[in-house]
Sequence to fold (110 residues):
Amino acid sequence: MTLDLIIVGKPICSLEELGFSEDEDTIVYEDDERFLPRILVKQGLFKSTSTIKQINKQRLEQDQVTIPCIPYKIPSTDPDQNLWRAVERKELTPFKIGRRVFWLLVGELK
Fold:
């Protein structure tokens, strides 16, 4: 299982303060794009936005989302777990899709 950290914008604190270490894969995303599916495709996590739309539909039909690095289950109705959305505010959100686990860190946006 791989763990990625996707950073959009400028983080408001250091990665070490958030519990991330240097040995994790970190993707710093510097672009004006704010639509999450396009960000994930541009970073090579998914092949197309239509794939993300299909995965998102399946995820929203589930009752809850289980993420191995979190000791509790997240309801699928949590708006932060929706992949089909724009990134508009500061957040630190975990995702697990298939075997891939990644965190989305959104800091100060332009």
Notes: The helical segments are 36-42, 49-61. The two ends are 33 Å apart (CA to CA). Strands lie at 3-8, 25-29, 64-65, 74-75, 91-97, 100-106.
